[in-house]
Amino acid sequence: MIRFEQVSKIYPGSQRALQKVSFQLEQGKMAFLTGHSGAGKSTLLKLITAMERPSDGKVWVNGDDISRITHRKIPYLRRQMGVIFQDHKLLMDRTVFDNVALPLVIEGYSMGNIKRRVAAALDKVGLLDKANCTPVILSGGEQQRVGIARAVVNKPAILIADEPTGNLDPALSLEIFRLFEEFNRVGVAVLIASHDLSLIAKMHYQRLILQNGQLLDASQAAEVQ
Ligand code: ADP
Ligand code: ADP
């Protein structure tokens, strides 16, 4: 589903953000990406969403080599994935419904179709009764769940989350992780970058650990756990 082959990334005028990173996230699997601030987590995720290009190596998503993807093909790539950010990037002057509907409106879905899909996505994250609220009045955990509903509304095969629980307390963080688990259980591949080591330790999934832009191998990883 996602495959990195000897991927390096050097930003202009700076040192290496990623160095010869290779890994594979298979279809329907869930994995955590950890490492200190500056280790390269956001960069790795940006290579998957084609917000950045690798300096060297190959990135495969859903069978396509996206290392040299053209601008024209980026919308097609992004349609296959849902992306969740720490600050959830919700539009605060729109309703919860409008926020979740946005990806479908951009795709030109019919209103009937949009209503049905948004209701289903909000139902999955337990916020159906908040559809007509503005996100401003919701709690931090609820706002993040709206972000998740928006990410899953067009049923992507892959979910990518960058520090999705960064602003949440441990109980709410666990709730968000459980939600990702539910999507994973129905076959969605999930990759979550997170600092939340105590929560990750409670969940038994593949762990990718970055240190100074390099992925630790199993024996090195055992030492830091
Ligand atoms: P995080 O730890 O969540 O990655 P950062 O503060 O490191 O947050 O980065 C915030 C944003 O700024 C990211 O989009 C990252 O790619 C970008 N960024 C980080 N370091 C630099 C830099 N040296 N120059 C330009 N942009 C940067
Ligand atoms: P993390 O997400 O693990 O905090 P990042 O991927 O944001 O790490 O950053 C990895 C390294 O790349 C850091 O040294 C950061 O300063 C640098 N970096 C990130 N984004 C940029 C950018 N847009 N321009 C220059 N340097 C960057």
Automatic annotation (TrEMBL):
<dbReference type="GO" id="GO:0005524">
    <property type="term" value="F:ATP binding"/>
</dbReference>
<dbReference type="InterPro" id="IPR027417">
    <property type="entry name" value="P-loop_NTPase"/>
</dbReference>
<comment type="similarity">
    <text>Belongs to the ABC transporter superfamily.</text>
</comment>
<keyword id="KW-0472">Membrane</keyword>
<dbReference type="Pfam" id="PF00005">
    <property type="entry name" value="ABC_tran"/>
</dbReference>
<comment type="subunit">
    <text>Homodimer. Forms a membrane-associated complex with FtsX.</text>
</comment>
<keyword id="KW-0131">Cell cycle</keyword>
<keyword id="KW-0132">Cell division</keyword>
<protein>
    <recommendedName>
        <fullName>Cell division ATP-binding protein FtsE</fullName>
    </recommendedName>
</protein>
<dbReference type="InterPro" id="IPR017871">
    <property type="entry name" value="ABC_transporter-like_CS"/>
</dbReference>
<dbReference type="InterPro" id="IPR015854">
    <property type="entry name" value="ABC_transpr_LolD-like"/>
</dbReference>
<dbReference type="InterPro" id="IPR003593">
    <property type="entry name" value="AAA+_ATPase"/>
</dbReference>
<feature type="domain" description="ABC transporter">
    <location>
        <begin position="2"/>
        <end position="225"/>
    </location>
</feature>
<keyword id="KW-0547">Nucleotide-binding</keyword>
<dbReference type="GO" id="GO:0051301">
    <property type="term" value="P:cell division"/>
</dbReference>
<comment type="function">
    <text>Part of the ABC transporter FtsEX involved in cellular division. Important for assembly or stability of the septal ring.</text>
</comment>
<dbReference type="InterPro" id="IPR003439">
    <property type="entry name" value="ABC_transporter-like_ATP-bd"/>
</dbReference>
<keyword id="KW-1003">Cell membrane</keyword>
<keyword id="KW-0067">ATP-binding</keyword>
<dbReference type="InterPro" id="IPR005286">
    <property type="entry name" value="Cell_div_FtsE"/>
</dbReference>
